[in-house]
Amino acid sequence: MASGGRVYGGSNLPPIMLQPSAAPGCPPLDSFYLSGSPPPFLLGSTSMVSFEDVNGSGNSKRSLFRSFDQEEDEYDEYFNQSGKKRRLTVDQLKFLERSFEADNKLEPDRKLQLAKDLGLQPRQVAIWFQNRRARWKAKQMERDYDVLQASFNALKADYDRLSQEKEDLKVQISILSDEFVQKHQGTNMAEAPQALPPENPAAASISEESKQDENSTSPKNGNKGVLDSDSTSTKKREGDNMFDADSHYYISGVHSPHLEHVDSSFILEPDSSDLSQDEDDSLSRGFLPSTPYRLPKLEPGDYSLASSSTSRNFGFPVDDNAFWSWSF
DNA sequence: TTGTGTTTTATTGCCTCC
DNA sequence: GGAGGCAATAAAACACAA
């Protein structure tokens, strides 16, 4: 019994071949051992043929009919080299490989049959399958790793691309904000502040309309998604004059007649670095929060936020020479 | 020939299942 | 409790460069 309390192949013998088998081009021969014959060491060396001998490879000195001296040598070899490992022959390996491909699990009956066919001890067959499964598993893990690596690379490339787009958009927002501030820097302060209170009913009304329009499209200008709510609400504003040039607000201390409740930190430098993806999405998709911020009126063809965008231009017609065309 | 890295065969200990 | 699977590991066999 092996030191783990395990009995291997019904004996504690080293893996010694019992008889020639699986010779190239020849069908495997039955094993005496498995045919109910006495243990190999009792059979004499005639049955103790190494794998190399079986295959006829390794310039074997042995044959099916050997001298007594040879048998004696092999008997000694059995005891003296019991720790030596014998490699399976090419044909035995081919046979085992085919069997493994058919089914990598080894039922007892199949194990015995394989051992019989190959002239191996059942334990050797079991060990071979066990090691083969381990190799297969390692290979499988390699393949899985490669697949995951490729997937990761693709996602990372996509992420980098989107990050770059995001940075470009931030830069454009900054430029537009600067332009806006410069454009209205000299606005007559005297015309100004009739600042409506935050709870201004008109603003709230616009806000509500904006919400209601979020899911509607605007066939008129072909812009959808990103600016739909703003464009449609802007259209409404044109109609009922709820948002006109006489409404004046301030951006960061700069008099602005065009924005309501403008959060300058948002307009001038929205730092979304800490935003969650959802927040990022809301920032880019809606561009402005649904309330109470309002964009100035935008005309078709005026939007050009997408100089860096191709497929992801958020519905903005691309025009590299004009960013936002603020139409009042 | 020899040193070294890799592959293959086999062992050990632990775990699960029946 | 025995049989068998698996992970970790040992060690022999093998490949190959220097």
From TrEMBL:
GO terms, biological process: positive regulation of DNA-templated transcription
Domain of life: Eukaryota
Alphabetized PROSITE patterns for the sequence: HOMEOBOX_1, HOMEOBOX_2
Coiled-coil region: 138-179
Spans annotated as Disordered: 190-240, 270-293
Keyword vocabulary terms for this entry: Coiled coil, DNA-binding, Homeobox, Nucleus, Transcription, Transcription regulation
SUPFAM superfamilies: Homeodomain-like
SMART domains: HOX (SM00389)
One annotated Gene Ontology cellular component of this protein: nucleus
A Pfam family it matches: HALZ
InterPro entries named among the record's database cross-references: HD, HDZip_class_I_plant, Homeobox_CS, Homeodomain-like_sf, HTH_motif, Leu_zip_homeo
Localization, UniProt: Nucleus
Chain residues forming the annotated DNA-binding region: 81-140
GO molecular function terms listed in the Swiss-Prot or TrEMBL record: DNA-binding transcription factor activity, RNA polymerase II-specific; transcription cis-regulatory region binding
Domain Homeobox stretches: 79-139
CDD domains according to UniProt: homeodomain
Segments traversing the membrane: none
Signal peptide: none
Function as written in the Swiss-Prot or TrEMBL entry: Transcription factor.
Protein family: Belongs to the HD-ZIP homeobox family. Class I subfamily.
Protein name as catalogued: Homeobox-leucine zipper protein
Species classification: Eukaryota, Viridiplantae, Streptophyta, Embryophyta, Tracheophyta
